[in-house]
């Protein structure tokens, strides 16, 4: 792989107009896959390595290194493809070497300056098995939010997302954690979690410290860091017991885990109202019979990221103009984006990175197929902003007065 970005990339950016094709970036993790990455995973319950991992995640336009046993070096980082499809350099190296072009001078100045500013987003596709026993172990992210959107995909109906804990269960949660650390093959912590039935085409915002156990095929956005704390060490579906020292982390694992849980949110009886998200049509850029844009990760929820679903009708062309750099993933159909041939279901042709220069100038998108071209655009922190439904102070005030619902619901 070429490494001298100072010499190679400027001419490459000029040739491509700043719209860059990405090399597909699949990752093997510890939970069972659903077999919905064609030609990549099988969904047959057989691990792909001696560590018991499954190919169950695809990382999109990633500048984040993976944190797990056996990982090293540049594992997790996405790679930019040359015009012939061969690997050119990591997206992280490109962004750091040419931040003003890739991210925009104002964005760079506001996010640490040259050499520090990054594409502040980790976007994933999770392909989790659909059975209840396939769900990811109950876990939290102590220092980062994340969000889900379940796109309409063949074979996936409603999904059941485990989120939070029933009120008054803290002592039982502590007992479950003590059982886990002692090595018992028990997953009774799942019995303490409300399970919410989500229809496809909807999503969920997960705040830091919120216990959750997702399942199904889902887009996931989060801060660019790969960290978590498992609260459930025994996985019934795999009949596997994970190591306490590795996954509960720390000398006093139980107390550390209890302290990392945000109990005010986890035990709220209004979890659905607070965290469930429905797409919202973007009136300013949608044109009947041509293109429909919807927020699926709405900037009125967080400053950390945003994301759109775009549906372009067959034979139509429109110009996409945004406020900054973003990643683009083609979900259904085929067409061209800034002159590049794109097609859903082909990992070599379904993922692009759009630089600040190209995104703000506007790129032309054409549907060359006979069905709608559906793609998703994912933005890092602060590119799209809107008045938040509730900031932290108002959120806490509302949590203390549960007789009313939050604004917007």
Description:
This protein has two domains: about 190 residues, Jelly Rolls (Sandwich); about 190 residues, Sandwich (Jelly Rolls), CATH 2.60.120.10. It has eleven helices and 27 strands. A nine-stranded antiparallel β-sheet has the order 5-4-1-25-22-27-20-19-18. It has a seven-stranded antiparallel β-sheet with strand order 2-3-6-13-8-11-17. A hairpin with an 8-residue loop joins strand 19 and strand 20. Helix 5 packs antiparallel against helix 7. The longest helix is centred in the middle third of the chain and has 13 residues. It is globular and about 60 Å long. The termini are far apart. The C terminus is likely disordered.
What does the secondary structure layout of this molecule look like, with pairings?
Elements: H1 5-16, E1 19-23, E2 26-29, E3 54-60, E4 79-81, E5 87-90, H2 91-97, H3 99-103, H4 105-110, E6 122-127, E7 139-140, E8 146-150, E9 159-163, H5 170-182, E10 195-198, E11 202-206, E12 212-213, E13 217-222, E14 229-230, E15 234-235, E16 240-241, H6 244-247, H7 253-260, H8 263-266, H9 271-275, E17 276-277, E18 280-281, E19 291-297, E20 306-312, E21 317-320, E22 326-332, E23 334-337, E24 340-343, E25 351-354, H10 356-361, E26 363-367, E27 373-379, H11 392-400
Antiparallel strand pairs: 1-4, 1-25, 2-3, 3-6, 4-5, 6-13, 7-14, 8-11, 8-13, 9-10, 9-12, 11-17, 15-16, 18-19, 19-20, 20-27, 21-26, 22-25, 22-27, 23-24, 23-26
Number of helices: 11
Task: Kindly name the structural category.
Answer: alpha+beta
CATH T-level fold name of the largest domain: Jelly Rolls
As residue ranges, the low-confidence spans are 403-409
Cα-to-Cα separation, first versus last residue: 50 Å
Write down the domain tally.
Answer: 2
* Radius of gyration using CA atoms only: 21 Å
Helical residues, percent: 10-25%
State the strand order across the main sheet.
Answer: 5-4-1-25-22-27-20-19-18
* Oligomer type: single chain
Strand proportion, as a percent range, falls in: 25-35%
CATH class of the largest domain: Mainly Beta
What is the CATH homologous superfamily assignment of the largest domain? Jelly Rolls
Largest sheet: number of strands, sense, barrel closure: 9 strands, antiparallel
Can you tell me the CATH architecture of the largest domain?
Sandwich
**Number of DSSP-assigned strands:** 27
Whole-number average pLDDT? 89
Rough outline: globular
